[in-house]
Amino acid sequence: MNRGLIESGFLYEKSEEDRHEGMRLGRNQWLDGRSLAFMVENDARQMGQALGDQHWDRVLAILDQGDLGSCTGNAGTGALGTQPLYDAAGKSVLPAVTDAVAAEKFAVQLYSDATVADGYPGTYPPDDTGSSGLAICKVLKSRGTITSYRHARSAYGFLRLLQAGPVLQGMPWYNAFFQPNSAGFIDADPTWPGSGKAGGHEVEALAVEIDTHDAFNSVIIYANSWGTSWGDAGYFRMRLRTYEQLTGVDLKQILA
Q1: Structural domains in the chain?
Q2: What percent of the chain has pLDDT over 90?
Q3: Which residues of 129-148 are buried (b: 16+ CB within 10 A; e: fewer)?
């Protein structure tokens, strides 16, 4: 990952991509110092509460970004198509939830707008430079589609956000992750760190199954944007301990 621009309280990092046909990445990191004021960890009323299983219903069809690095737009569109956000905001802006082609066009336009908002050199079209989850949230807020968004800086904060609805997660994507096992786990092989980073990817987290004996064995369920032939009909799973290894200082956005 090449460090980009640092100016006016912003940090930009561009992810270099090891391209895999039909499984594009395209997530860059954009950190805004003002986001610290909107961390879920700042809310003492929420922190310390018990966590439970959550499965948010995605009513929107699984999308397929093809060979465009629009994963951020696809993840944001997927979150709009997942309850409870769908009834609150997505229903009024998304095309028919069964029309994956029209929904993909919506996602590409969202990605395009984000490449303008993110401040990183290059905009789509014509430059397929990728974008960030933060830019997606900023665009949706500027459109009036959502009224706010929050971040998490810890595993507990991430799970706290998942108690309320779907979460956008930006993450380093390793080469081993391209081939989930038969149960949909991308981290089933414990040697995955040795496979090397392929780039950065944005996905939608929409469910958690809490392991009360070992919290870091809890399972997070995600929707990807590589079509239904990939993974578990377009979805995948990952253990919370892997999340801890991957995220570092990454910020997670929730649409609200």
Answers
A1: 2-14+26-255 (3.90.70.10)
A2: 65
A3: ebbbbbbbbbbbeeeebbee
